[in-house]
Amino acid sequence: MQQVLQDLTRSRSELYKKFREKGGRYTTTLDHHTSIRFNIYTGVDFSKLTVNTRGLTTNIHCDTPPGRARDSSPNKRAEYWKSLHGKRLLYGSLVALVWLVQNGQPRVYLGTIATSPDDLSKGAKRNPQRLMFSISFFDPGVEQHVLNQSLDHIPKPTRLFLVEVPVMYDAIYPILRSLQQDPPVECFEQYLPLGITPSNHILPPSYSRRLDFKWNLACLLPEGNQQFTFESHHQASVCEAIATLRDSSALELTQATAVVEALSRELALIQGPPGTGKVNLLCLCWNSLIYSSEPSRERYHPCDEGKRC
Length: 309
Prior knowledge:
It contains ten helices and ten strands. The protein is α+β, with helices and mostly antiparallel strands and about 300 residues long. Helix 3 runs antiparallel to helix 4.
């Protein structure tokens, strides 16, 4: 969201292009190596407030995004949302409502989608230009704004749009809970504060910054390799470790990079579609941690039969 708010200040940004196209997939670059993707929904209107099993939800109308969702065939439009081809507006997925008022600071309200794919597809079948769905907002102040706006008690926004994060809320709930702890988890407090631009430089784990500590990744190589170390606080050593894993282990370049980078930072996020080996990479990181800390350096692999990490 910080990047979205920054792009609002640049009239030639990709975000304003999506406004003109009435929504769509929004990609922006944080640096030379990192890009982020969101779905943008424009033309947001409020319909009514509804009480259901998720509590108080807000009914939303917005522009149908370009592409297959606007197909001329009602059945194809309905099938698009029902089969989740676009992986959009999934039940329980996280969205952010950005509320812009003239000469005012943009307000951001987080919530989750409270409409099933079946109900979403029925609405899309009736109207090719507009979508209708419900959102359960975390901040009850949203409902108050909706009511006040309907009664003309507050100025109407100059622009309302939705930003959809392609993750399920349940998947990031542990991170959000960690941010709310008192005191919060140290690494989350430092790198994920709301309203502050996060640092591009993430420190290695504190224990690996000791002068006498070296990661021993020999357990990731074929039998017979007893020494394969690197130092997470030296970039040249990190690059060499990635190249060694790529050339001498069963890992691909992206997998080798993910393992070494995860061990080299006190905060790392690994993402990828199903079947790309995320759980296996976690096991390899855990294996490396055990192998680097055990004086006996006994060979241990968490994926061996009869052993679990």
